[in-house]
Amino acid sequence: MKPLFLAISLLFSWQSFASEETTEQAEPQTSHEQKAEKKDVPSLEFIEEKPVTEQKVISESKKEVAEVDDSKVLGTQTPTPAEQPKTVEEKQQAVDEAEKAVKQAKEALTAKQQEKARQSRESIAVIEQLIAAYNARNIDAFIKMYDENVEFYTFPNELMFTGKEKLIARYGIMFKKLKCIKSSPIKRIVHGNIVIDHELSETCSQDPKVVDKRAEFVTSYKIENGKITKVLFFR
């Protein structure tokens, strides 16, 4: 009995060993088949792939956005020096253009500015005649430069007198009494019909050749229609 039992045990052991070996060989094959299937799956991702040209356009647009042009940022540009004329013709052309620009600038003056310039010229002429008559002690020529109702003030607004009669009485006596009178402008400001003179006054009381008194005055004159209408003394 024992030999028969031993033979049956060996037979079952061999069948069990053969079954396990068959199972181990089947499993690697299944694993290999799964890997093959997984390897083929990714190819499905390229079914909706975009055309090559469209991809290129998108790539170039991204590149343009990434590259920022900062060459025109304020303060980064180097000023280009103006080209100098090289030939005689170019130099003459530059001179002509400059003269044309000056002419256009003069013509661009407004009517008000031109009127102001005209008033300034006329006002200076009136004051020049006044000073000449004053230095010559010519009362008639001196009075002629004033309006009939001229007003004399001391700064800031203290009225001294008005009218030619008091002017004649005041300056007529001074012209006869003094041996010499000389007024010399130190500085002059002209604005339309207003003239402000910083002047040096010299007088001779005894000898016409000996100046015995000097004083500085600042006087403002207002001129209208060729006549002095208002005088303001700054003392």
From TrEMBL:
Name of the protein: Nuclear transport factor 2 family protein
Biased composition (Polar residues): 19-29
Pfam families according to UniProt: SnoaL_2
Presence of the UniProt keyword Signal in the record: yes
Keywords carried by this UniProt record: Signal
Keyword Signal: yes
Residue stretches of biased makeup (Basic and acidic residues): 30-72
Ranges for region Disordered: 19-91
Domain SnoaL-like positions: 127-230
Endpoints of the signal sequence: 1-18
Superkingdom to which the source organism belongs: Bacteria
Organism: Pseudoalteromonas lipolytica
